[in-house]
Design a protein that fits this description.
Endonuclease, Chain A, 8-stranded mixed sheet, 11 helices
Length: 343
């Protein structure tokens, strides 16, 4: 499946919108079934008991944008590592050409006198090739939680000006407790600290307590109810990003252009995020119930009828939820809250 909907998918989606945001099975031809399946797979149509409901394309755009940005970042990392990977082969080739005869032809490698090969070098045929100097590659890979945690601790200890952190998904309070000492030490020596979380992170009171401990020392925290990728950036000179889907492997980047690219994305997300203090209060139980019903697809009027409340009261609760989740519309709010657990 391509990243963007094809012409047939676009036409059928627009037909659903023109039909009030719904598609009935009797309105679909047999030839439409593959197109409907593709729209459902993309999240642009949601199956219901009576057919299909059109979903907000902005959610698809946000998700695909995050995936494409991650793909682009990984390609940048690969591009930075490629010269270092090929450097031993280049040295072998250039050594052969330096041994060329007066006519410019390349000598057979077997005719080159054998020499001792320094430890750590690579040998092509009988031609010694110097080893790649340390630091020649601007990206290194770390595998395993212990190695990653050790390297991040070193980078935090050496950070002098600014620490940026984008943390999508839930954050275990235990992990925040373990890293509290490092974070407070960084703040006390005058470094700035900016962290992005998603709304679900703030549902845990223990996490809120940890965020508060850092905030009192000057840390800044914002909440962004959109997809984004995990990253850490130290002094705008070193970045750590996931290098595998299981998060048990990271790439440590030092190339200035690559790090600047990541910082620009962080700053863009930070500008769209909302301050965490708007989200720190625990929502009222009625607000939580209204949010659950909205996430199940009920309209504002249906929620009011179900709970025996006036539409004005429901609207007030929904306004607080929209502010909490940074949602522009009720549809966007319902999508943001799908699959979340509320106490």
């Amino acid at each position: 499946m391509t990243d963007e909907p094809g012409p047939a998918e676009r036409d059928l989606y627009l037909a659903a919108v023109r039909g009030g945001g719904r598609l009935r099975p009797e309105d679909l031809a047999p030839a439409d079934r593959p197109t409907v399946a593709a729209l459902v797979a993309r999240g642009l149509l949601t199956p219901t008991a009576t057919g299909y409901t059109a979903a907000n394309p902005r959610a698809l755009g946000d998700r695909l944008g995050a995936e494409l940005r991650l793909r682009a970042t990984r390609l940048l990392v690969h591009a930075e590592r490629l010269p270092g990977t090929l450097r031993p082969l280049s040295h072998a080739y250039e050594a052969l050409h330096r041994s060329a005869g007066p006519g410019g032809g390349v000598l057979d490698a077997r005719s080159v006198p054998a020499r001792s090969v320094p430890a750590g070098s690579v040998e092509a045929g009988s031609v010694p090739v110097a080893s790649v100097p340390a630091g020649a590659v601007d990206a290194t890979r770390l595998d395993g939680f212990a190695a990653i945690r050790r390297r991040v601790a070193e980078l935090l200890a050496g950070c002098e000006e600014e620490f940026l952190s984008a943390q999508p998904g839930p954050r275990p309070a235990e992990l925040l407790q373990v890293t509290l000492g490092q974070d407070l030490s960084l703040l006390r020596r005058g470094c700035t600290m900016r962290t992005l979380y998603q709304p679900a992170t703030l549902d845990d009171p223990a996490v809120l307590h940890q965020i508060g401990l850092r905030s009192r020392q000057g840390a800044q925290t914002r909440v962004l109810a959109e997809p984004y990728e995990r990253m850490l950036v130290f002094d705008r000179s070193v970045a750590v990003i996931p290098a595998a889907e299981d998060r048990d492997c990271v790439a440590v980047l030092t190339d200035p252009a690559t790090v600047a690219h990541l910082v620009a994305h962080f700053d863009r997300d930070w500008a769209r995020a909302t301050p965490a203090d708007r989200h720190l209060g625990v929502p009222h139980p009625t607000t939580v119930r209204i949010g659950r019903l909205l996430a199940r697809g009920l309209t504002q009027r249906a929620v009011a009828t179900r709970l025996g409340l006036s539409e004005r009261t429901v609207a007030a609760h929904l306004a607080r939820l929209r502010d909490r989740y940074g949602a522009q519309t009720l549809f966007h709010l319902g999508w943001q809250m799908r699959g979340e657990r509320h106490g």
